[in-house]
Write a structure and sequence with these properties.
582 residues; alpha+beta; Beta-Lactamase; Heat Shock Protein 90; 3 domains; 5-stranded mixed beta sheet; 17 helices; 52% helix; flat
Length: 582
């Protein structure tokens, strides 16, 4: 669109109107081609054929599952025992009860199975069990479906009505002959499928399509429309189309009255799946094309006025673009790319805004550098509260005095405190390994154990793989100290548990105690009392080092006591944590 920046408006108007007219004729030709009736029908047919093939394969897979159920059930030993008979009445009753229970559990565990029918020579007298029912084998000879099973070992029998406690209910049945070793008919096992399950399969594939499933006699087995009925004429057309199609292609289509039918055969069960679409719906696109052409004609008349509006928008486009850039720009984002080819007033606006961005970024960098130096000073101030060298030398002298006086506990405490200071020195490093942090904490806890004796115990769980990660020094000790001083102040027997676990790219440090817990929130206190200077020191240092990547949560435990949850990123190189803090 560079010509809008160079040519006169009157030339642009003439050229634009000419191009618009050419564009309109192109649109008319394109729309006429796209909405032709022939293309719509061909495209729809191809789409429906693919969908029906996918659905038929899915149905075959699901139906084969129930055929597999019949094989598994017919081979169960308890079923063989029941249909083969037992020596005593008690044995027959016990086996029948076990078989009923086993088969009922299968029915209840497979929602698609409605019930199971067993035809055998000596059915139990009490035949009110549901969903498993027993019938004399001779009754099966009188059923319409028996001839179907006469020629095959197993087959789908289509829709049937079965007796239930609530009366007759429709089902879709699959039957299997069970013969003796001599080939004589011993039993007939029928698994009844809930028709609503089959309807759900169809609707699950497409709840908007009108799908119908027929058996080999043209009877409706299931459909997405419960009230749909197939006439003999339509079924005859489907059969003729299938025979005409031959074996090369299993999908075919016919026209019946005001409906367009695409059908496919499910060969494994000799069923037919159809999708019925009103013909008016298919040609609706052509009708829309007619109205579109009418609208295009009206549009052509109004186009001259619209062209003027378009030119106005072209003139205001640079202003709108600059306004959007100014509204969405953030100081910490990359500098936006602005056009540099405008030679008029818009160019002055773009250049002025670009200069403003450059000055703002320079100021931001200056403030960021100042903030970095301030944070470094704060870290040093937080850690330089005492002179550890002086204290370590003093404690060493006190330890010798305690040894000379025979005060072993005091000597041990001074020795542990000296070890704490040695770890605390860390050669001036503010970042230490998890292993050193745990050593420091163990020395402190041993001092508290000497002081509190049997009133205090502790446990530390630190996986070996985590002790080489780096964390800020003295991260855990202030929280443990807070638990001992404030949590066990009522004289109870206290225990502190320390856990460190890995959570992806973070470490979760947990300090758990069985103390009195933190004070609950009251109208006079807006948050929990989480300790004094030491804990605030930890919070400030974690914020300086990690920002939002670290968090400290203090909660009261349901079983009593408090839990401190410290979540920090995994740091494998202590230098990287220094860079992160900057």
């Amino acid at each position: 669109m560079k010509f809008y920046k160079q040519y006169r408006i009157r030339h642009l108007l003439f050229g634009s109107f000419f191009l618009f007219m050419v564009l309109i004729f192109g649109i008319v030709i394109y729309v006429s081609y796209q909405y032709s009736v022939h293309e719509i029908i061909e495209t729809t047919t191809e789409y429906q054929e693919k969908n029906l093939n996918l659905l038929s394969e899915d149905l075959e897979s699901k139906l084969s599952t129930f055929e597999g159920y019949s094989i598994v059930l017919s081979r169960q030993q308890i079923y063989r025992d029941v249909i083969g008979g037992s020596n005593t009445q008690f044995g027959r009753t016990s086996s029948t009860q076990s078989l009923t229970l086993d088969f009922s559990n299968i029915v209840y565990s497979v929602p698609a199975i409605h019930s199971i029918e067993i035809f055998l020579n000596a059915p139990p007298i009490d035949n009110i069990q549901y969903p498993v029912r027993y019938y004399p084998l001779t009754d099966s000879y009188e059923e319409d479906w028996f001839s179907t099973l006469n020629d095959e070992t197993s087959s789908w029998l289509g829709s049937r009505m079965v007796d239930t406690i609530a009366g007759e209910k429709p089902v879709i049945s699959f039957g299997r002959h069970v013969n003796t070793s001599r080939g004589l008919l011993q039993s007939v096992l029928i698994i009844n499928l809930d028709p609503y399950t089959l309807q759900g399969w169809l609707m699950g594939f497409s709840d908007e399509s009108n799908l119908v499933l027929l058996d080999n006699n043209g009877n409706v087995i299931s459909s997405t429309n419960s009230f749909f009925d197939i006439g003999d004429t339509l079924y005859q057309k489907v059969v003729e189309a299938k025979e005409k199609q031959g074996d090369a292609k299993s999908t075919y289509h016919v026209r019946h009255h005001e409906d367009f039918i695409v059908a496919t055969a499910i060969d494994s069960v000799d069923w037919t799946l159809m999708e019925i679409t009103p013909y008016d719906d298919l040609i609706a696109g052509s009708r829309r094309m007619t109205w579109t052409l009418i609208a295009i004609g009206i549009f052509s008349i109004m186009l001259a006025l619209v062209g003027t509006l378009f030119l106005t928008r072209s003139v205001t486009k640079p202003v709108v673009h600059l306004a959007n850039v100014m509204e969405n720009y953030q100081i910490n984002q990359p500098k936006p790319q602005l056009p540099d080819d405008y030679k008029n007033e818009f160019g002055q606006l773009y250049r002025g805004f670009d200069d403003l961005i450059n000055r703002a970024q320079m100021l931001y960098k200056s403030l960021n550098e100042q903030n970095r130096r301030q944070r470094e000073a704060e870290i040093k101030a937080l850690q330089a509260n005492i002179n550890p060298h002086f204290l370590y030398n003093t404690l060493d002298q006190l330890n010798w005095i305690a040894i000379e006086r025979g005060d072993n506990d005091m000597s041990k405490m001074l020795e542990l405190l000296g070890k704490m200071l040695r770890v605390g020195l860390s050669k001036g490093e503010s970042i230490i390994t998890v292993e050193d942090e745990i050593k420091y904490l163990q020395y402190y806890l041993q001092i508290q154990k000497i002081q509190l004796e049997d009133r205090f115990s502790y446990d530390i769980h630190v996986p070996k793989l985590t002790d080489r990660f780096f964390i800020p020094k003295l991260t855990l000790q202030p929280f443990v100290e807070n638990a001992i001083i404030h949590g066990f102040q009522d004289g109870r027997v206290g225990k502190v548990d320390i856990h460190i676990v890995e959570e992806g790219e973070h470490l979760l440090l947990q300090v758990l105690d069985n103390g009195i817990g933190f004070q609950t929130i009251t109208p006079h206190k807006s948050k929990l009392n989480t300790g004094g200077y030491g804990i605030r020191n930890v919070n400030e240092r974690l914020d300086v080092y990690f920002g939002k990547e670290a968090s400290v949560n203090v909660v009261n435990r349901a079983e009593g006591g408090a839990a401190v949850l410290i979540r920090i990123p995994k740091v494998r190189d202590k230098d990287s944590i220094q860079h992160t803090s900057l």
